[in-house]
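Lab notebook, bench 4. Still working through the backlog of constructs that have no structural model yet. Next entry is a single chain of 295 residues. Request: give me the structure tokens for it.
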Amino acid sequence: MTTAQTFQFVESDVTPKDVRLATWICFFAWTFAVYDFVLFGNLLPMLASDLGWSPAQSTGINTWVTAGTALVAFGIGPIVDRIGRRKGILIAVVGAAVASLLTATVGWVVGLAAGLGLVFLVLVRSLAGLGYAEQSINAAYLNEMFAHNSDPAKARRRGLIYSLVQSGWPVGSVLAAGSVYLLFPIGGWALCFAVAALPAVFIVLAGRWLKESPQFAHRHQIDKMIKDGRIEEAQELGAKYGIDVSEKASPLVSVFRGESLRSTLTIGGAFLLNWLGVLAFAILGTSLLTAPDGK
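Model written out:
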């Protein structure tokens, strides 16, 4: 005797409380990701002085670190599309914390082998690209959560709310500067980086209450149906939630096609030009301000 396979759609159970909690967690996750990111720029002159790097070496190391963080930030996107937004947020937070903690050990590694220490630093700080990716993961996650929010007023104000989440950048920058002021006289740059890893513990604990975005859950369910050959059920679920079941291209390819192309180029170009200045000052600004000759 055979038993017919039953199927039940996964309904959205996102409440306004879930969205508020997600907003606060994303704010703090981004704040402490920026905290680690800016901390490296603030402490780069101190690292260079303690480890005997010339200004040219510091600039070269920062260039390799920046390239590494970009590769990591790009690479995490497809992974988040597979494992989900919730797990992606937590991985980004943990990645930034691990980068901070390992940066605190760079002095020991350099003491063992100078060349190995430089490679170690570049690899470790490249891992901080996970924290930088927090910004884009937050954007995708909150956009999907607000799309299923039962409160229309808050859904209409998603731009305002996300701009408040983005204010984690100046808050994180101030925290980084404040931590250097308080902790550097006590334990030097190593203590500053070690302490920067601690907030991740609280974010991960709070992440237990994060719900996966309904859009990702539905997309994941549709992909599983298609893989199992249940095409009609997949089409029915896709029609119900506005998901294009026939779309086979990867998200990276899709953003360079059709109507998405202009938005991708415009927003991507603006983002690039903005971050050229931000990165130049956030990382090398401290070195410039503390240089004896002002160069």
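Notes after review: The domain at 16-208 is CATH 1.20.1250.20 (Growth Hormone; Chain: A;). The CA atoms of residues 146 and 156 lie 9 Å apart. Flag for follow-up if needed.
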